[in-house]
Specification:
By secondary structure, this protein is α+β, with helices and mostly antiparallel strands. It has helices spanning about 1-25, 25-30, 35-55; strands spanning about 55-65, 65-80, 85-95, 100-110, 125-135, 140-155, 160-170, 180-190.
Length: about 200
């Protein structure tokens, strides 16, 4: 008897569910969406988010025991099969009245965590970055070692590198002789300008 009641309830539930689905076709269409359609619906938002990160890389700076916010932009010229040896120019604008602009010029090395084969097609891998730069804000100068981590998309001519980085700056002519900053965003650079590495994908 108890089993019969349970079966009747189950049948009734399925009938109500069918009726509700017919009266609300948008639910059916939503359930039947393929993963590709769902991905395409989020693609414009992903592109917009990546564009904002590329144009406006947030930076948090600790200077003289004070926390400051700003925006940061980096451009690199890389050398090597994947542009892993980089000459980097970095500009930061800090939201404050004094010493608001900072410039860095230096060398960075991207340690690729996947053993990529030289190719003219884009390949991707996680990467750890180590770097050393000269720092100036036109009032002070110093040296900036840094470490970063990101997911690199690159070939022998172009670098796309979403990443986070932490820097320590030793200032040589300031009684508060150290700065710390943390930033994240997307770096886009070029590799091997005016150099033909003659790297081709297998079969081409």
């Amino acid at each position: 008897m108890r089993m019969k009641i349970i079966l009747n309830i189950a049948v009734l539930f399925l009938m109500l569910n069918c009726v509700y689905a017919q009266e609300n076709p948008q639910i059916n269409s939503y359930k039947l969406q393929s993963p590709e359609n769902i991905t395409e619906s989020y693609l414009p938002y992903s592109i917009a988010f990546a564009a904002v990160l590329y144009l406006l890389n947030p930076i948090l700076l600790i200077d003289n025991h004070k926390i400051n916010l700003g925006i940061n932009k980096e451009f690199s010229v890389g050398f090597g099969n994947f542009g892993e040896h980089r000459i980097s120019f970095d500009y930061a604008y800090i939201f404050r009245s004094n010493n608001s602009q900072q410039f860095r010029l230096g060398y960075k090395y991207d340690y690729l965590l996947k053993n990529l084969k030289p190719s003219n097609t884009f390949q991707s891998t996680s990467a750890i970055t180590l770097g050393l730069s000269y720092f100036t804000d036109f009032t002070r100068s110093g040296i900036s070692p840094e470490i970063g981590f990101g997911y690199s998309i690159r070939n022998h001519k172009m670098l796309i590198f979403p990443h986070i980085k932490f820097r320590y700056t030793s200032v040589v002519n300031d009684k508060f002789n150290s700065l710390y900053d943390f930033s994240f965003g997307v770096m886009v650079g070029i590799a091997n300008p005016f150099i033909d590495k003659k790297i081709r994908r297998e079969g081409f």
